[in-house]
Design a protein that fits this description.
about 190 residues; mainly alpha; about 90% helix; single chain; globular; 6 helices
Length: about 190
């Protein structure tokens, strides 16, 4: 649970740090609110559609989806500073919508997997606390960084944090595999 909280706090930090400024970036590149609206619709609708395709695969692949989501968002953040056309913005919005579906669904699946009925409150409270704190810190940090640096650097810093989140999920998966192996050995010993 600690690694899940760490990884998703990093995701929240990365997203919260860039999100308000990314909206300005989209508005400036699209030159109109209708283009901004279309870009955001591509994000939300692609997330909704992909969630239906991911749902039957979630129980088996939630950790891999969480890692893929962070890697995809890292790639999108690295690509944004290089985008000069609205068409590419729509492609990145599609990628981000897919990543959003993977992240949100697998996050919830893993929260359920790492808690037990009747004992979820404390774990979910801790999860909500740390991800919300990360969100608040992110907006303030993003504002200071953008004052000193450029929006492009903010995208790169966000990409770096998404990469760190991928590493945290990988550590979580690795720790889970070790725990399963130890549990299997204990069961085999008891059955022998």
């Amino acid at each position: 649970m600690r690694w899940l909280i760490r990884s998703q706090s990093m995701v929240t930090l990365a997203a919260g740090m860039i999100y308000p400024y990314y909206l300005l970036f989209l508005k400036n590149l699209g030159n109109s609110y209708s283009k901004y609206g279309l870009a955001f619709a591509v994000f939300t609708i692609s997330s909704a559609i992909v969630s239906q395709w991911l749902a039957p695969r979630l129980d088996k692949h939630s950790t891999k989806m969480l890692m893929a989501s962070s890697l995809g968002m890292m790639a999108a953040m690295l690509a944004f500073p290089w985008v000069m056309s609205y068409g590419w913005i729509l492609v990145l919005q599609l990628l981000m919508g897919i990543c959003n579906a993977m992240q949100k669904m697998s996050e919830r699946q893993l929260l359920a997997d790492h808690t037990v009925t009747g004992g979820r409150g404390i774990a979910i409270g801790s999860y909500h606390f740390w991800t919300t704190v990360a969100s608040g810190i992110a907006v303030v940090l993003g504002g200071y960084l953008i004052d000193w640096l450029t929006i492009n650097v903010l995208f790169y810093v966000s990409a770096l944090i998404y990469g760190a989140s991928t590493w945290a999920v990988w550590r979580m998966q690795k720790a889970g595999l070790r725990t399963e192996a130890v549990h299997s050995q204990k069961v085999e010993t008891v059955n022998s």
